[in-house]
Amino acid sequence: MSKILVFGHQNPDTDAIGAAIAFAALQKELGKDAEAVALGTPNEETQFALDTFKLTAPRVIQTAANETDEVMLVDHNESQQSVADLKDVTVLAVVDHHRIANFETANPLYYRAEPVGCTSTIIFKLYKEHQVEVAAPIAGIMLSAIISDTLLFKSPTCTEEDKAAANELAAIAGVDLEVYGLDMLKAGTNLGTKTATELLTLDAKSFPMADKNVRIGQVNTVDLKEVFDRQAELEAAMQAAMQVEGYDLFLLVATDILDSNSELLVVGAPVAPVEAAFGVTLENHRAFLPGVVSRKKQIVPQLTEQFGI
Amino acid sequence: MSKILVFGHQNPDTDAIGAAIAFAALQKELGKDAEAVALGTPNEETQFALDTFKLTAPRVIQTAANETDEVMLVDHNESQQSVADLKDVTVLAVVDHHRIANFETANPLYYRAEPVGCTSTIIFKLYKEHQVEVAAPIAGIMLSAIISDTLLFKSPTCTEEDKAAANELAAIAGVDLEVYGLDMLKAGTNLGTKTATELLTLDAKSFPMADKNVRIGQVNTVDLKEVFDRQAELEAAMQAAMQVEGYDLFLLVATDILDSNSELLVVGAPVAPVEAAFGVTLENHRAFLPGVVSRKKQIVPQLTEQFGI
After folding, report:
1. How many CB pairs (< 8 A) connect A and B?
2. Are the Cβ atoms of B114 and A110 closer than 8 angstroms?
3. Where in the cell is it found (chains A, B) (predicted)?
4. What predicted TM-score, i.e. pTM, was given to this entire model?
5. Does residue B114 belong to the interface with chain A, where contact is any CB pair within 8 Å?
6. Which of A190, A267, A297, B168 can pair with A238 through a Cys bridge, CB separation 3.0 to 4.6 Å?
7. ipTM of this model?
8. Is the CB of A101 inside 8 Å of chain B's CB atoms?
């Protein structure tokens, strides 16, 4: 039997990579021949976490069926966010904390989703349910994923379970949660060295809404002005990506991780559902969204509702 | 806040009703205002189980949005098997053991699926995880669901977890598993008093396959001949249902619960994928399927594969 590949979504963030590493390690403890892989290289925040806990970045794959029949998904389920040939392999398991959409199987499977802030919080629970001890580096990368997904507990997606898991994991990993957390988040905000296209693809996902293909990218920063100084360059890159990839609408959400606000940049059409979703009027293609930090909870459902699905 | 409605699939079987009763009872223990309802009246097997454990059949609903905003699904997820207005309510939770298809949410939710023989096996596990004691009648209806779904452990869908759960639940419910189990299954095979249309709708589900609408009904019997003595009557009722409901293909699976074989009756088109799926040639619209007892494991995936989804 071929190896079971375990992976998170495209444009992997720290949870996509951390949850894959942690879930594959759990599967190995349970006797399965599993390997964590990734659908992209780590971003700077994730690389900082991997380096801190002396873990190797998972091997990058584009397709799965060329090397296995069986996969496990973490931190995503929507097929357009997954490996290109998902339909050609059997999904044995999913562990996720997102909405369910564009996901379909021919056979029953193990599916564990909970409305918590981070997939790694659920995976930590699975370690406990199976009474498997968590090694310090695995605890470190799961902790990093929780800090990343909840912006150090500031996101409205964060639950008491996430906080409790993070505290336990910090103790196992042997780091100071607050100090390590802010260091790690800051490592991901080094935007100046990146091209506009790199910024757009850092953490971007596609969402079909009604008959539109909506792309939503997010960047974390400690200085919104630094991002919007490059607005013209960003808009040109968004237009180019829309041409190439067939997006109808492209939203870039720039999130200030210190103040917990976001500024939105919108290219494409229709913009009316965007304005209605957030109760704003776009000016110069932009709108300030006070208190908005979560794409999953404060962007996607509101937009989805306006598109009338 | 309105009451959370908890329900299983249309044409409810013992698991659809039993799992709804058990999961609603668990939610109440956890402080939620939940009510078990059903998308149809109990069949004779389920009624036998309800009577044995002195439980009342759940209230039947057709739509949910007229009385609540929030629902929990058990034993199904596919929207065409659910309440008619599923898209108008929020699905808070799903507990299921089927494939995932035609299911989509705008928000993250609690989703717990495991590839075991019965939803009630998973719900019994949830009672344990939450350290909630199972009352004897609730144990009885969960036990009944496991016996029903696994045909007293003879179905290939049955796992060691189902058997272990059933044994524990029989002890709590205070019944002899084998004796009660066979009595209950036999109570569901009283087909002679039913019209052809009643037989077809006893346990029938719709499955979109490629561009076809496939209906698959199943009846349990201790005498296949008794079923097929009524073949002409059954075919006429299947044709009529296809006209009214727009099915392209209608399969009736008559399952001998003592010998663990099935006989298939097929009306509509295309039949080529059916013959290919089971390696048979239909004669007089029929084919014998030795060892086949599970629609979920031995019918739907094989057909789905032939339809090329």
Report:
1. 84
2. yes
3. Cytoplasm
4. 0.86
5. yes
6. A267
7. 0.84
8. yes
